[in-house]
Each structure stands twice: as structure tokens, then as C-alpha cells.
């Protein structure tokens, strides 16, 4: 699924971002800070913003994509209003995290790493959230839900709709 970035709605942010590029364009290694600024300002790296980076820094788009895809901190998919972090660490995995994740994917209709079309939910895999005694566990935003079974998921997600 491709998300449409609205240039008109983001006009002010885009101008601030272009000002940031202008202030920093002559610095050594400018691409990384520019991509980081874009990620912070827009929440992800929309194609339209990467085209602006390419034009304003005179760097081929292919090179920008090469850098952005190399580092895991960058994403091309916007995060949802509610981010569901699913622990897949050893304790959670052994206690059924895979089945919990499958049910989250089923309820939301998206795969792990994705965002719902309405931008309400994202699913992010994590390795350990430090709540092994509650395994399997998920975090939704700042809320921890533990000792989960697949049949618990629908009711938990409904609280965030």
C-alpha cells in the first residue's frame, strides 16, 4: 500500500525543511542530517521529500535511496497514531508471541512493519521490551499488555480505535 503525501497540507513544514537544507547544504556529509531532519519533521521519508532533497542537494535520487535503505532508522511508511510494538524476544517467542502477532495482523489486516490505511495503527517488531515476566507482551504507545493470548487481541485493539 502506498501512502499519498499531501504537499499542500505540508507546505509550511516543507518550507522549514528546505530552509534547513539551505542552511546546511555546504557542510561535509550533509545527507545524513538532512534525512534525519526529514524523518523527524514528516515522521517518515515520503518520495516527494526525497525528490526535494535530491534537487536541493544536487544528489541523485538513487544515491539518496541507497543511504536511506541502508540505515534501519529510516522508514518509507508513516507510523500510525497507535504503534503496536510486539516483543519477539526469546521469552515472548517461547510463550506464543508468534500467534499473538498473527492475530494482530489478522485483526488489523496488515503485516508486521505495516500501517493501516487510515493511519490509526502500525505494527513494529521488537526484540525485547524488558517485561519478560509478562511474556508474551506488546506495547501500544506507552501501555504494556502482557500474558497475552491471541483471543485477547481484538478487545485490546478496540480500546484504541
Structural account:
With 161 residues, the protein is an alpha+beta fold. The chain is built from 7 helices and 4 strands; from the N terminus they run H-H-H-H-E-H-H-E-E-E-H. It has helices spanning 11-24, 31-42, 47-57, 61-70, 90-94, 97-108, 153-158; strands at residues 82-87, 121-126, 138-140, 143-145. A hairpin with a 2-residue loop joins strand 3 and strand 4 (143-145). GO terms for molecular function: 2 iron, 2 sulfur cluster binding; metal ion binding; oxidoreductase activity. Its EC number is 1.6.5.11. [2Fe-2S] cluster binds at residues 87, 92, 128, 132. This is NADH-quinone oxidoreductase subunit NuoE.
CATH class of the largest domain: Alpha Beta
**H-E string:** HHHHEHHEEEH
Task: Order the strands across the largest sheet as they lie in space.
Answer: 2-1-3-4
Mean pLDDT: 95
- The tally of beta strands, per DSSP, is 4
Per CATH, the architecture of the largest domain is: 3-Layer(aba) Sandwich
CATH superfamily of the largest domain: Glutaredoxin
Q: What oligomeric arrangement do these chains adopt? A: single chain
- Helix/strand/pairing category: alpha+beta
Name the helicity range: 40-55%
EC number: 1.6.5.11
Family: Belongs to the complex I 24 kDa subunit family.
Binding site for [2Fe-2S] cluster: 87, 92, 128, 132
Protein name: NADH-quinone oxidoreductase subunit NuoE
Amino acid at each position: 500500500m502506498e501512502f499519498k503525501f499531501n504537499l499542500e497540507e505540508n507546505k509550511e513544514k516543507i518550507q522549514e525543511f528546505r530552509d534547513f537544507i539551505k542552511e546546511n547544504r555546504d557542510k561535509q556529509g550533509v545527507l545524513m542530517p538532512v534525512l534525519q531532519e526529514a524523518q523527524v519533521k514528516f515522521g517518515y521519508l515520503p518520495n516527494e521529500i526525497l525528490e526535494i532533497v535530491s534537487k536541493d542537494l544536487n544528489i541523485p535520487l538513487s544515491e539518496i535511496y541507497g543511504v536511506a535503505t541502508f540505515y534501519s532508522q529510516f522508514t518509507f511508511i508513516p507510523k500510525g497514531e497507535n504503534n503496536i510494538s510486539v516483543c519477539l524476544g526469546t521469552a515472548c517467542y517461547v510463550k506464543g508471541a508468534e500467534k499473538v502477532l498473527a492475530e494482530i495482523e489478522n485483526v488489523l489486516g496488515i503485516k508486521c512493519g505495516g500501517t493501516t490505511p487510515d493511519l490509526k495503527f502500525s505494527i513494529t517488531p521488537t526484540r525485547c521490551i524488558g517485561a519478560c515476566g509478562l511474556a508474551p507482551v506488546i506495547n501500544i504507545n506507552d501501555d504494556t499488555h502482557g500474558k497475552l493470548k491471541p483471543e485477547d487481541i481484538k478487545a485490546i485493539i478496540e480500546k484504541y480505535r
